Amino acid sequence: MTLAGRLFSGASLALLLTLSTSPVISAPAPPAAAVQPAPASELARLVDIPYERFTLPNGLRVLVHTDRKAPIVAVSIWYGVGSKHEPAGRTGFAHLFEHLMFNGSENAPGDYFKPLQEVGATDLNGSTWFDRTNYFQTVPTGALDRTLFLESDRMGHLLGAVTQEKLDNQRGVVQNEKRQYDNQPFGLVDYLINDNLFPPGHGYRHSTIGSMADLDAASLDDVKRWFTDNYGPNNAVLVLAGDIDLATARPLVEKYFGAIPRGPRVAPVQDGPVTLKAPVSLTHKDRVATTRIYRSWSTPGLNDLSSVALEAGVSVLGGLSSSRLDNALVRDEKIAVSVTADFGVFQSVGILTLAADVRPGVSPDLVAKRMDEVIAGLIATGPTPAELDRARRVEIAGKIRETEAVGGFGGKAVTLAEGELYANDPELYRKRLDAYAALTPAAVQSALKTWLGRPALALRVDPGERDLDGGPLGGDKAAKGAVIDRTGVTTAPRAPRADATLPGAGKVPTLDFPDIERARLANGMPVVYARRAGEPRTLIAASFDAGTAADGATRYGAQSLMLSALTEGAGVLSSREIAERSELLGARVGASAGADRSTVMLDALTPNLTPSLALYADVLRRPTFEPQVVERIRGQQLARISADANNPQAIAVLELSRRLYGAGHPYSVRTSGAGDAAVVSALSPADLRNLHDQWIRPDNGRLLIVSDRPLAELLPQLNAALGDWKAATGTARGAKVFVEPPAPSGSRVVLIDRPKSPQSVISAGQVLQAKGGDDLLSLQAGNEVLGGGFLSRLNMNLRETKGWSYGVGSGVPEVVERVSFRVSAPVQADRTADSISEIVKEIRDFTTNRGTTAEERQLTIEGATRELPGQFERGASVLNGMATLAEFNRPDDWYERLPERYGAMTAADMDSAVRRVIDPSRMTFVVVGDASVVRPQLDKLGLPVEVIAAPPAAK
After folding, report:
1. Mind listing the pLDDT tens digit for each residue in 343-373?
2. N or C of the chain: less Cβ packing under 10 Å?
3. Alpha-carbon distance values, 900 to 71, 599, 889 (Å)
4. Dihedral sign of CA atoms 465, 471, 472, 475 in order
5. Which of 160-169, 235-244, 485-494, 767-776 is predicted with the least confidence, judged by mean pLDDT?
6. What φ, ψ does residue 354 adopt, rounded to 5°?
7. pTM for the complete prediction?
């Protein structure tokens, strides 16, 4: 997250929520009215990404999409090389090389992030998958020259900058990335699924991250050959999307990319789906909370439009909230805690996995049997027209949301690039939507019979001591890789580029934060509104002064359980009916608790706003808290609590919060956690109703709205839905009690013993003498230098210099009461104490004799100023920004005044703000790791070390 992003993260609102909500008792529930949503065909037409294209003589394909809503351009370049192109002994190379591409090029030495942070780039990253490697950033329009220079330099002039030192460092970073993912509950499952779905040598068999042995074996010559074979312009697609047009784009692309010669021809790897000769059954033990049952198949890929029918069938089976598996196993029979359907559709293969988490006390064999029966039932009957219609609408609504942004991991640029690279057709998204529109229940049933009627891979993961080592997993000694045709490709060193000077940062863009309007509903509830034209969406957050702090330290989990119940029965609608109606409307309704606020969200397609508001009002005002439903969601929350006890990051964060704030403080709990099992087990439906009446009420909250429609048009609809909502009679509004956190006498280490952990998780911090409503701008800017950004001292030290971690960061999350400074550092186990020493050293240096340099100050201030327009491209970001302004009583023009405030900020201001509140001699370090490996290291630090056992469920 960038500095500007952190400035509105304190009161941020979760938009992509799981469907679970609840209403308040006031007026009696009206009878459920027939819903008349906008036709699906009308909604599908809202997904439109016009583009123009050209191809350079060297084969580089270029797509240009114009979107003038903000002065930014997304630059996304996709190379046709991924893990399926890797031969035996070279697994993980595509991903390893992605890392090397960020370590500088011949004419832009140093870290790739630095010149882009200077211009205020957002959504800056890269990723590797089976079929491709992509690199992307969204930059202010004036920085496009610099960005194209940098991308072209690492395409055409990289090898001179690739050194053995860089390779060794990034090898360590990638291996720690692998350890970090392997260390999670169910962290080895993907290896097992792919190894058993596909035969040796199949392109989709081995993992993208590869095996430790292959990563160890990578030589400098190997990686250089990988670059020359795969990174030619003729194997790439460049997409420019945003404040750009073809007339501007073409000369710039020709200037920067035109002189790069063609590379070898990479033959397509078209390995397709595989039918197992017979069912395969596997069992695996891991540190998990409950047994999980999997069923997996390989299926057609993106270029086979029959995958659309299968995708719709899978949605009906397990993807929708109202899916067959959800209704049968979770809602009705209550034998599973949750079900999921994961359908990864790649270029020439799909990997379909259904999973069910067994409810504690229920036989896993029963869940597996019923799961198979539900699958067979849908194959036998096909979906109903209503089920298919809901699946279709959810898909369309998801694509509307996905293409709001111009870039990033999703967005318009990604949609165009994916179609062009995989199918030579940027409009592949349109063809798939059209195929969705034409689907019939019979076509979906046929696809289900064809693909799910084949033998399945059945995997069962049981709680217990992990029985596999992830290190050797992920490779394939029979991998074939791609055929490379080097005919006509010169091996002579490339001539130096003529335009070797890095272009300037360009004009500083101006943030135009949407004008904020205010009103009140008829019941007095405040409304804070901003208009965002473009996507036909309306986002509404009913934000209440509650959050996990409302639980205090003794009822941890109560607010979360109450909020989870909101969408599980409201008015006259059951949990299933709420799910079905949300899907029919393409709406998302959900609730969540932050530290200080509880929020009930509506993300509606504006053409369906009126019926979506009616549903939302039921959820807010009239939750039913039916006893059998409360028992079901209680079981789900208890399962989440057990899952947290198996997650090393969650264990570390919760223990640190307890140590920093003390047992009696509301912030002593993990904000994103599920609570205390004893508390959750004891809550009754009446307790939840009382909690709702205390906290979810119009005199305790406000409505925050971002919409493409004017406020004057929305207010009558809001008043019709919520204007007569009153607080429950006889119930007092809730009140929170804060106590003073304990003052530590010195630094200390708490070691939580988690045997056989492949990595140690370090979570460190201290409570500061500052509150969220204070002016923390200089403190946040100083932390950006210390640990807040990728280029920060902590990350550059432990990741980029030493290679001990996949990523290290620090932050000061803004809460209403006392804030804390926190450091997060997952590190390789044998460097745990060394990492703590380096963290202490960096903090001590910053707070004593090595404060912010002039270069660091300029980089931080310039980047934070220039990135502001990109930070508020999305409607959800505007809503989060408004929430933060309201929470901390900041003026409406606060964001627009930031450039002026940044400009006046000095390095001394940043140093003083950090030194005033952060004391490196009073840090608490919580380490989750294997004590047999870590304790001897920690004893050498000279700090008191307390060893405690991991939570029981984690053993």
Report:
1. 999 999 999 999 999 999 999 999 999 999 9
2. N
3. 19, 32, 20
4. positive
5. 485-494
6. -105, 140
7. 0.93
